[in-house]
Amino acid sequence: MPVILVVDDEEDIRQILSYNLKKEGYHVIEASQGDEALYQINRKKPDLILLDVMMPGMDGIEVCEVLKSNPDNSSILICFLTSRSEDYSQIAGLDAGADDYITKPIKPKVLISRVNALLRRREDSVVEMKLTRGIEINREKYIVEKDGNKIRLPRKEFELLALLASRPDCVFKREIILEKVWGNDVIVGDRTIDVHIRKLRTKVGENHIKTVKGVGYKFISNQ
Amino acid sequence: MPVILVVDDEEDIRQILSYNLKKEGYHVIEASQGDEALYQINRKKPDLILLDVMMPGMDGIEVCEVLKSNPDNSSILICFLTSRSEDYSQIAGLDAGADDYITKPIKPKVLISRVNALLRRREDSVVEMKLTRGIEINREKYIVEKDGNKIRLPRKEFELLALLASRPDCVFKREIILEKVWGNDVIVGDRTIDVHIRKLRTKVGENHIKTVKGVGYKFISNQ
DNA sequence: AAGAAATCATTAAATTTTTATGAAAGTTTA
DNA sequence: TAAACTTTCATAAAAATTTAATGATTTCTT
Asked: How many domains does one find in chain B?
């Protein structure tokens, strides 16, 4: 289940949001201030952040900027919480980093449908993906481009790469990889993953996939 | 989901358009100048382009002309963005290449309904389709022309070709093919698809339809 | 720090899956 | 009913996937 971080200085609001999200089955963590939010993000990378714009101290926009300055966090969705009174121009201006915004007062139904939509959309938006140093994955075309050259990958290899690349710099445990790429019911030996990783490395580049011994593999975005 | 390219030199406008389109679920890419737009089009062929007429450097009309000079791009829809002040004669003049236009200031609701309408209309208008290297599909006549020669295809073969060609280079999974060409209720074996593909290949050309093992087939546009 | 244990890397070979193809058997259409 | 169209079947071919075997590396123990 996706992890959602709720950031708002008012405890009442945090509770209402948190309650409703949990009821939907999401794993919710909270922060009451900007810096606390950044701390939480570091500790447990959320899938989505509901971020209040107006907060004492570091406001939502600053948090967003700091957050997005780290490419590790590029896949985190951000949804601002704004008061209706804050004018649209401002919201449009800060839109750069955000994926959506919800105006207060927040109705539970609106909240849930927006959150669901955002997370659902994220799944689909992995159709095309630009990765560092000219690696591009296109799900529709089932093609990976490296420095402009098209690389044709067999299905399993493609799925594996797409999975790893869906969250760059995050480690995927072997069990997770098996579950996502091979399916829960299929039983294959552990060496199978290695072999596929091997093939990917020769095709996509040796230093794009890093192994984390005892855990799994990750796709390296930068450097 | 369809891909929409937003071309406008003002960042604010790009953002507002982008935001609203994304909210609808479209995949949006942006360009701030004419040549950047052409670059983007080359990189990822969009379904629709929202194209500002007045831009410094290469203006919208030029972009449109360059675009349309390449038959590969004939299926891309173009919607101009114009100021109310720009006189209609000019707009009428450039109408040739464009499918629609929206006058600024742009209201989100108008934007969305126009965009939806355009894309919906396109679905139906796959009546005739020019494809690379002189392959042309005419839905009304159930006829395919290759290098000027008319090829008469049986219904199923035609539907299959039309489906694959509707999104060149995109893979159609076997299940999707079955659903679209044969219908959800009809039960036919997987070999049936192969056989039809083979017949198409012998008639239309071996290297126009490519198989993606384990996934499905795709129509190759170029080369 | 040395040795043992666990975990990965790598290659080649074996196996399985998936598709191509020709021919034939049904089906529909004119 | 013949002709055209669809579908199935059987077999060949190709490609993808998995296993197995061996070497390398890291981690853990003592």
From this structure: 2
**Alpha-helix runs per DSSP H in A70-220:** 88-94, 108-124, 155-166, 174-177, 191-204
Strands A216-219 and A172-173: antiparallel
B171 inside 8 A of chain A by CB: yes
Question: Which of B44, B171, B214 is the closest to A128 by Cβ?
Answer: B44
Q: DSSP of B100-145, one letter per residue?
A: EEEEESPPHHHHHHHHHHHHHHHHHTTTEEEETTTEEEETTTTEEE
| Residues in chain B closer than 8 A to A143 (CB atoms) | 169
Q: Which nucleotides of D are covered by protein (CB under 7 A)?
A: 4-10, 15-21, 26-28
Of B25, B111, B29, B116, the residue nearest A117 (C-alpha): B25
Q: At what angle do helices B60-68 and B34-43 cross, to 10 degrees?
A: 30
Which of B105, B124, B143 finishes a domain?
Answer: B124
Packing angle of the helix pair B108-124, B11-23 (nearest 10 deg):
60
- Give the chain A residue whose CA is nearest to the CA of B11: A93
| % residues pLDDT > 90 (chain B) | 23
pLDDT score recorded for residue B89:
39
- Please tell me the pTM assigned to this model: 0.59
Q: Which nucleotide is nearest to B201 (CA to C1')?
A: C20
Start-to-end CA distance of chain B, whole Å, equals 26
Q: Which residue has the tokens 């919906």?
A: B120
pLDDT at B60: 84
Token pair for residue B177? Answer: 């093919």
Whether residue A151 has pLDDT greater than 90:
yes
Q: Same domain for B110 and B136?
A: no
Q: How far apart are CA B167 and CA B179, in angstroms?
A: 16
Per-state percent for chain B, helix, strand, coil, to nearest 5: 45, 25, 30
Closest CA to B69 of B96, B43, B31: B96
Residues B152 and B109 placed together within one structural domain of the fold: no
Nucleotide nearest to B152 (CA to C1'): D4
**Chain A within 8 Å of B122 (Cβ-Cβ)?**
no
CB pairs A-B closer than 8 Å:
39
Say yes or no for a CB contact (<8 Å) between B171 and A93.
no
Strand C closer than 7 Å to the CB of A174? Answer: yes
Domain range holding B143? 128-219
